[in-house]
Design goal:
CATH architecture: Up-down Bundle
Number of domains: 1
Shape: globular
CATH class: Mainly Alpha
Helix content: 55-70%
Length: 168
């Protein structure tokens, strides 16, 4: 049995986004229970030169929607990147999951060698589909998801490995 590009992407993206939404829900509940201004957590960072929690979530959703769209040969939707609360961040995740659920295996499978060109600032990067997924999209989704998790964990939110990984 082989693993298709669709199986390696869209379901994994949805799983990580769903798990991240659960972690954010625990962050919101923690802020409420401890009478902490939620903005403190939403703007929390692990280190001054790192992005805050809100930006971590934006990057995860951007990689998920952009990854699926580009693998399917489509232009990804643009978001305003103005979410500043737990409910707004969770709504962004919900919107991204809904978008991802519109993809079919037929749109993504066969994209292993599709040429994908990204313009990042002044730099242009070109990838083939499989290396794009395996070496850029998935690592970014995992990195920024775990960084969001770690920001909340560092601030006392009762989350554990099972929250990050989700149910099998």
């Amino acid at each position: 049995m082989t693993l298709s590009m669709y199986q390696a992407s869209v379901p994994s993206f949805i799983r990580m986004l769903t798990n991240l939404a659960g972690v954010l829900a625990k962050g919101a509940a923690h802020a409420e229970a401890k009478k902490i201004d939620p903005a403190v957590l939403v703007n929390g960072r692990l280190f001054p030169d790192m992005f805050p929690l809100a930006r971590q979530v934006m990057i995860v959703t951007d990689n998920a929607k952009g990854g699926a769209a580009r693998l399917a040969g489509l232009e990804p939707p643009k978001y305003e990147d103005n979410e500043s609360s737990f409910p707004e961040l969770m709504a962004r995740i919900d919107k991204t999951v809904a978008y991802l659920k519109t993809f079919t295996p037929g749109q993504v499978d066969g994209s292993e060698e599709r040429t994908i060109t990204l313009k990042l600032g002044k730099e242009t990067m070109t990838f083939q589909g499989m290396p794009y997924l395996l070496n850029l999209v998935l690592p970014n989704i995992y990195f920024h998801s775990v960084t969001a998790y770690n920001i909340l964990r560092h601030n006392g939110v009762d989350v554990g490995k099972k929250d990050y990984l989700g149910s099998p």
